[in-house]
Amino acid sequence: MKIKDIVNRDLVTLTNCEHEPIHIPGSIQPHGFLIGLTMAWNIDFCSDNISSFIDISLSEVIGKHFDTIFGTEAHRIIQDFITNEKKLSVFPLEMDLLDNTFQLTIHKSDDIYVLECEPTFLEKENLVDVYAQTMTFLSHMNSSTSLKGLCGFVAEGIRQITGYDRVMIYRFDDQYNGEVYAENCREDLEPFLGLHYPHTDIPVQARALYLKNQLRFIVDIGYTPVPIFTTDDDENKNLDLSLSILRSTSPIHVEYLKNMGVGATLTISLIHEGRLWGLIACHHYSVKNISPEVRLAAKLQGQFITSQIDLRQATDEYAIARKTSIALEKLTGLDLSDSKEPFKILISNQNLLQLSNAVGVSIKIGPTIYKNGVTPTHNQIDHLITAITDSTNDKMFITNKLRVHFPELDYGEEIAGIIYHSLGNGNSIIWYRPETISEINWGGDPEKAIIKDSKGLHPRNSFNLWKQIVKNQSSVWLQPELNSAAHYAHWLYNQIILMMLREEQERYRSQSHILKEANAELENINWISTHDLQEPLRKIQIIISRLLIEIEETPTVDVVGYLNRVSKSANRMQILLQDILKYIRIKNNKDTLEKMSLNFIMDDTLDAMKDDLLKSGAVIECQDLPEVYGTPYLMKQLFSHIIQNALKYASPERSPILKITASKTPVIINDSHKMYCQWIKISDNGIGLEQQYASSIFKIFTRLHTMEKYTGSGVGLAICKKIMQNFGGSIEASGALNKGTTITLYFPYEGCDQNQS
Fold first, then answer.
1. What letter does residue 455 receive in the DSSP assignment?
2. Dihedral, CA atoms, 515, 516, 520, 525, nearest 10 degrees?
3. pLDDT of residue 101
C-alpha cells in the first residue's frame, strides 16, 4: 500500500494571498499528533510524528482498522464520547492509547472523525484556583459600566488565568481594520493600547475560520510543521482542519508573529450577532502551552464580553441618548397649529440641532428652504437632495463621508456628514456635521502589510508607530442620534400631513361659503326668470302680435321693422331664460342614477326629433350602444342637445350625416388617471371647429359665431357637460374646419362610485 502526504504546497502570490487555503494546510503543529478515521473506523489520515508519542510507526497505522492498533476498549470509549455531544464540545477526552495517557479533542470534518491527541499536562491545573479567579473576575465585571472598562477587566482576568505576557482585546470596524481596545501586559513591554492594524493583517479566510473555531493557539512560533499522510487513492485528497486545534498556521502569519518577536499565541473569537466583533489576542515571548481547563476558562471570559456588548454599548450611549431624548421631547411638545409660519419658528429652535448633535439643519417644504446653523446654500441643498433621490429610493440616507458618495458636491470643511429624511411630496429634513480631522495611530504602515521581494511574499517587519491624518469625514453618527432624528422626522411628517389637512379643511370651508352665496344668487335668478321676467315678455309678445295684425293692411315699413326686432329679442330672451333654468336644475339635481339601455334612450330621442331630422335631411348611422348608469330624462337632453348642435352647424355644401359609435375599451383621459370603460362618439360632417376651441365650447354662454349667423344662447353644450359630470363621466370635443366635429362621451365602470366627478 502506498501512502503520501497532503501538504499544501501551492505558491502564495499577491493576487491570491487573500484566498490562501489555510483550512487545508496538510500539516499540524508538533505538540500533538492527529488521526483521521473513516465512518468504518479505518485510519485514513495520520500525522508523521505519531511515533514521537507512542511506540508505533506511521506505516504500521495508516490504512489499518482502529481496533487492530488500539483495541476494542479504546474504540468503545471514543464511540461513547462522540455520541455525547455535551462532552464533545466542552472538555477533551482523557484516555490511554498503547499505555500512554492523552487528551483527545475530537471533531468531525466532512465524513472523517479527526482525533487530535496531546499528552496530558504533568502539572494538573487546580480547578479550584481557576474557578476562584473566574468568580473574582465576575465580581469585578459588575463594577464596570462601560464596554471599554469591561474589556479591560477581561484582559486582566485572562492574563491572570493563562499567564501570557500580553493580552489584548482587539475590536474590528466595519472594514475589519482592528484597534487594540483594551490591554494588559508585563510592565517592561511597550503597550499597544490604541494602535490600529489594517484588515490585511487578518485576511478574509482567516476571519472565516475564527467564526468556525473560536479558540486557536500556537505553542511555539518556531515550530516545524508536521505533514499529514494518507493512503494514495485520490490525487486531490485533503483534510479540512477548520475546527482543528493542532492545525498548522499560514507561513505568512508565522513570519508576521516572528517579526513582532512573539513566541506563542492564544486567540479567542468574539462573535456578536453572527459577525466577528473582535478577538482576544494573547502573546507570549517564549514557548507556552496551557491546559484544556485554562483554555476553557479563557474562552468563557471571552463569551462574557460578547454577552455584554449590547448592554455596555447602551450604557456608553446613555448620556447621549438622554440628551437627544430631552431635545426630542421638547420638539414634539411644540404646538405649531396656531402659527402662521410654523417652520420659521421650528427651524430657529436649538433643540432641533441638539436632537442629533448637529451643527446645522435644513427643512425643505415645497419650494421653500428653512435653515439654521452651518448649512450649504439654498442651491447646494437643492442639488444635494436631487443627488440623494437620484441615487436611492430609500426615504433615509446617512453618511459621515459625504464626498465618498457624491464627489461632485464639495462643501469644503463645513459639511462632511448628513442625516437625510424624506418628508414626502418632495419635502425633506437634513442635519449637517462638519469635517473632523482625526489622527489614527497604526502599528506600522498599513499600506505595507504585505511586502514582495526577490524571495517572495512577506508580512511587514516594522511595527513602529505610523500616524495617519484622516480628512473629508465627520464624526460618526451614534445610534441614539440616528434614532432621535428618525423619530422626529416621522413626527414632523405627520405634522405636515395635519397642516395640509387643516389647510384643505379651511379651503373647503371657504368654498362652502362661496357656494352658499352662489346658490343664493342662483335662487334669485330662478325667481326673477320665472316670475318677474317671463310675464312682461308674454305681454310684449301679445301686444306686438296685435299691432302687427292692425297695421297689416297699411304697413309702415319702419314700424314693422322695429316690431320684428323687438319680437326676435323677446324670443331670444325667453330661450336664454329657459336654458338658464335647465342649467340650474341640472346643477342641483340629486336623483339617484340607475342602469339604463342607451339604445332605448337614443330611439326615444330620435323619435322626438323626427320632424327636425326630416326637415334637415339628416342621415343617422347608429351602432349598438351599451348600458350605463344615469338619469333617463337627462340622458335624452344630452343626446338632444348634441344632435341639435350638429344639425344647426351643418355644412351648406352637403347633407348632414351623424355617425354614433360605441366601445367598451378602458381608457384614461385628461391626465386625471381616471379610467372609463365605455365611450360614445357622435360624429358629424358639418362646418367643424378649430381644435384650440375644443374645450371652451363647453363653457356657459360661449359662442364661436355671431347671433346673425347662428341662433342660440351658448348654453347647450354647457348643459351637456353638467349632465356628464352628474353621471360621473366626462365629455370631449374634437374636429377640424370644414371636416366636421366629434363629441365623445366617457362613462365610468359600473362598479365605481357613481357620484364621482
1. T
2. 10
3. 92
